[in-house]
Amino acid sequence: LKKNELLPIPIDALIASESTLVSLIEEVVSAKGHWELLFAALKEQQTVNEKLNTCKQDFASKTILVKQKQGQLQEATVKRLQTDKLLSQAKLQTAEKVEDLRSQLVNGEECPVCGSKEHPFSIHNPQLSRVLEGLEKEYSECNELYEQLLGDTSSLQRLCEKLESDRTAFENDIKINFGKILSMEEEWKSYKIDKACFQLPIEERLPWLESLLETLRLNLNEAKTKISSYNKIKSDVDLQKDQIDTLNRELVASKDSLKDIKREQQTSNEEAIRLNEQLSKSNADIQEITNLLDPYFNKAAWISNWKQDATKFVQDIKLFSESWSRKSEEIETRKNNL
């Protein structure tokens, strides 16, 4: 019954399938690990490219802004110098003329400038002060704008220098990564699985490989389960076969023993026949002896005594004979003496 259960199980095909699945799983695991590295390198290259493009765009926009700031700074510098020069000249000229006129003014005498006899601004002139304050304010504003533009221009120039440095670093990284990616792509093409997922977008390849690996492992477990079931049944069959072989050997041994018994029985039968023949012959001899000796015994029971204990009977006869011989000799002796 167990042996019949083995017949529908294609064990050779299962073993071959198990070996094939193990090889496929090993290749897919290796390919999956390699693709993870390659995909990470591709994503890193993409990120660096995006950073490089952003860096270039920032550099271009900041370069334009630097030029604008430099133009504004140039204008602010010119205006600052002009207002500084005007303020300096106004301060110098005002100081020289005012001080000279003030020193000549006398109360009650006409001013050579305005003709007034009163000189309320001989000590302080509000109008002149407002003019000077206006020039100072304009200079201060120009100077603040200049300082602001100078700071902004310097910051933008430093930012452009950093962007230029970053751009060079990104380009070097891209060049280095490009060589690594080429080498990794060549190795990836050596995997047979590459052809199966060639048409898939790179973002979908890792999930596809994971799904394939899970399917292969499920198939391998199924094949192993069937092989294990086959081996279990085969073990039971082998055990049954051993038990049957043992029973067959015991049966053969029993048959041989039966033959020996039959031979012994036949030998015993033959021996019994031989003994019966001997017994018949002995009985015939005894009967002949009995017939010969019976006249010499006056009792019929002698034959029973002899059969009951032949040795003792013979000894008794021997003793009787010896006693008879002695007595006969004694009688003859006595007769001679008379």
Protein architecture, described:
The protein is mainly α and 338 residues long. The chain is 87% helix and 0% strand. It has seven helices and no strands. The chain has helices at 2-6, 11-104, 126-189, 193-196, 202-293, 302-308, 310-337.
Could you provide a short overview of the structure?
The chain is 87% helix and 0% strand. The longest helix is centred in the first third of the chain and has 94 residues, at 11-104. The chain is built from seven helices and no strands.
Fraction of helical residues: over 70%
Task: Specify the structural class.
Answer: mainly alpha
Main sheet characteristics: none
Strand portion: under 5%
Low-confidence stretches: none
Set out the fold topology.
Layout: H1 2-6, H2 11-104, H3 126-189, H4 193-196, H5 202-293, H6 302-308, H7 310-337
Main attributes?
338 residues, mainly alpha
